[in-house]
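A reminder before we start the practical. When you read a complex entry, don't treat the lines as separate problems. The point of joint prediction is that each chain is placed relative to the others, so the output describes one connected object in space. Small molecules and nucleic acid strands, if listed, are placed in the same frame. In the example below there are two entries. Take a minute to note the order of the lines before looking further.
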Amino acid sequence: MNVVTEQPANAETPLQLQRGVITPNELFFMRNRFSFPQIDTSTWRLEIGGEVERTVSLTYRELLSMPSRSLTVTLECAGNGRTGMNPPAEGEPWQYGAASTAEWTGVPLAFVLEGVGLSEGVTEIVAEGHDGGHVSDARGEEPFARSLPVPKAFHPDTLLAYAMNGEPLPDEHGAPVRLIVPGWYGMASVKWLKRIHAIRGHFDGYFQVDRYVFVEPGDGGLHRPVTEIAVRSIITTPHDGATAHLGNHLVRGLAWSGAAPVESVEVSVDGGQTWQPALWTSEPSRYAWRAWEFRWDATTPGPVILASRARDAAGNTQPETITWNELGYGNNAIQRVAVQVGGEV
Amino acid sequence: MNVVTEQPANAETPLQLQRGVITPNELFFMRNRFSFPQIDTSTWRLEIGGEVERTVSLTYRELLSMPSRSLTVTLECAGNGRTGMNPPAEGEPWQYGAASTAEWTGVPLAFVLEGVGLSEGVTEIVAEGHDGGHVSDARGEEPFARSLPVPKAFHPDTLLAYAMNGEPLPDEHGAPVRLIVPGWYGMASVKWLKRIHAIRGHFDGYFQVDRYVFVEPGDGGLHRPVTEIAVRSIITTPHDGATAHLGNHLVRGLAWSGAAPVESVEVSVDGGQTWQPALWTSEPSRYAWRAWEFRWDATTPGPVILASRARDAAGNTQPETITWNELGYGNNAIQRVAVQVGGEV
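Here is the predicted structure of the whole assembly.
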């Protein structure tokens, strides 16, 4: 893993080790805001309360006996690619490895919410983790907590997940149970779940209103919330700064989008002047990235700028340049990879 | 793992540990006919020869630089379910755990074959592994080797696989490179590859003509070869011999077929007299099994026979009773699970 910060543990997946679609659990990127909790599964309970008809407290065993669903889902940190921001933005200096993919198995959150019955007028469902601590001088201590609008909370693919790639959830990825919110940036997929509560109005926790919002010049303090993953492609091979011999190469990468399945990827080997289609090398998926390849014939010695751009089925494309924002979220601008071509095969 | 034989190592995946679609590498069923070889990847070479225009010898590194593909594929041992045969059949006494699923990444065999150019009249492609030994008194020593008809060898999904669930192939699953033949029983997916050779006529190796054929009463010595995986569903929860309280339960299982994607699963809670549809709990896939669930309300104390039956998109269904054959292959008869209902919740 490429360590970003030691304490709390933040680490990226080394892109050159990403083969195919599934990221092995031990290579899955790690995002922690605090020291991560280690929870005894046998005594863990999930409280479902707030504005509901009857509060319940679920055990791990009870959750395992409920209807389940397995989905392959790419999670991406909202700050992935932040180091591409200029001027630099606040926050962990992620390059492009704060995204990974796993098969998640769990209980649709909707099933549990239907069991408790929401009161009239409920608008959001708040998920709170066991992780927390000092967040700011004004706020003091807060747990990590995030809300989902009711329709997203009731989407059948929003899961209370207990398994990752067929194994019980590892401690560092939210054991025993975490949320998985497919298509949204990772902050929504709250780890180490403690409590789910239904509210009327809008949740105003620190991680809802002070973080994970686009703070943009001229927004007059009305910050758009960070939600859906913006369409993106990355080049995994060759790496930035690599040297390449004259002749044939395969440029490899991944592409994904929160709004809709990715539809095409194009590659440029001349810094973005001309583009040619890449080929898919993995199966289509609703929520997981797809792998692609592009055959590149390096004919002239010297520096070359490689770039890739994806389009999703909703027509979204990647911008040429970064949409700068103060907290450095959602940078899906076209990535450029500089390679030095030289020498014979 | 449930060990079937210690030496050579044969072990089943414990079905109750199979969550979702992906089987973790360390729980993937193991099928060995001999002690498994441990090969140094840095000196390994794959010879491609026989009736070809030019013989080549590929290194691991060269293979990794070729066009690739990632596919999620269920592998099933042709002898899976053999213990259900009556009278007992020859061979390892597999119950229902000799099937598992992984994402495989590798180079289409077709790409390599196109590179060497087949000679006129080639009909089969033989894949030979590094594993081998005494096979019978008449034959003496032989490597494990199997042939594919040319159209199957050239199918774009037939892979020279080097990664399993995003990790380099483990030793016990054929490192550094194995064949993956999606939709066919596991014997076709030759492990620890050593040599690929093109032939005219029919390959007559021990594992092609003396094993992996249906030896059936009255076939007059004309044995059908074992190829495509027959449609099958299994119940993973509850297990045979379990006790269940009165009230609601979820019956869980998996379903797959080599001929076409599985289309439906039905469950019976009265020993096969009446059937009701199960619900899919994982995404559709061309080559991987799908997970399903069925809500069962146990209303009366006493013994209950649960059963499941799948249908694939080609219209194939599971037979009521076992199609007996001497070597015990391809038993896809409807599985029956006996459960004792009793007591209160």
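Discuss with your neighbour: Residues 205 and 331 of chain B are 24 Å apart (CA to CA). What might explain this?
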